[in-house]
Amino acid sequence: MNTVLRMSLPLLAGAVTLAMPLLATAADVRVTFTNVSPAGSVGTSPLWVGFHNTSFDLFDAGSAASLGVERIAEDGNTAPLSTLFAATTETGIQGTLPEGPAFPGAVRSLEFTGLDLAGDNRWFSYASMVVLSNDFFIGNDNAMEHDLSVLLSNGGMLSFYVGGNGDVWDAGTEVNDFANSLANGAFGIGGGQSMANQGMAENGVVRHVDDLPYASFLSAALVPAGYDFTPLQFTSLQAIGRIDIQLLAPVPEPDTYAMLLGGLAIVGAISRRAIRRRTA
Ligand SMILES: [Ca+2]
Ligand SMILES: [Ca+2]
Ligand SMILES: [Ca+2]
What we know:
This protein is of the alpha+beta class. The chain is about 25% helix and about 20% strand.
């Protein structure tokens, strides 16, 4: 190898090294939610997910829930939460997984594009109403619980279970009276609310559901075939759902191409000069 070419190799290496972090900055991911709770157990409303830089925090245990959490926990309505998220984190990306409530065994999936997994969209938050309930939900209190930057180095898959071992929340916004829940219709149960936010205000704080939540549930006659919430205790439930976040092909940004091409041009120019000099 001639001297000039040997000198130019570090330049190329430098250009590639500079480009590497940028290669990973705009990524596409697929979020999949699977309801893994036992047959006959609870469902979940369409899962809301947000990718942020920690400027967004879904809730704090022991404090009153935001309007966004109240509406998703009581009615599965993600709109106020979406508004709150957009107002809190300018660079955040969010969405709600499609289709209706996910009952045991159901799988829901949605793709997101252009995420900055090393910065603006590094942290993952999620929320979903537990169906049937007045204001039970699953979601992460710790805004930094799920770090998506690992996707860039671990082969591109992050999976974790949610709602297990008592990690189900009561939003503290509606009195638990399961004969009067908005979701009764989904189970073919009579009564219940005819519209959103109708239940009695609880004026409480977000807390774990650690008792037998359905002990005072309707008479078994009201529960449709195949469902039985009576023995359900969240503290002994392994999980309600599994979330899989899969990195699709990382998309290099225009800057990255420019830098790579710039590096290659420098190397090319030096090599050409070296060849000219040698043949002169
Ligand atoms: Ca929090
Ligand atoms: Ca409640
Ligand atoms: Ca309410």
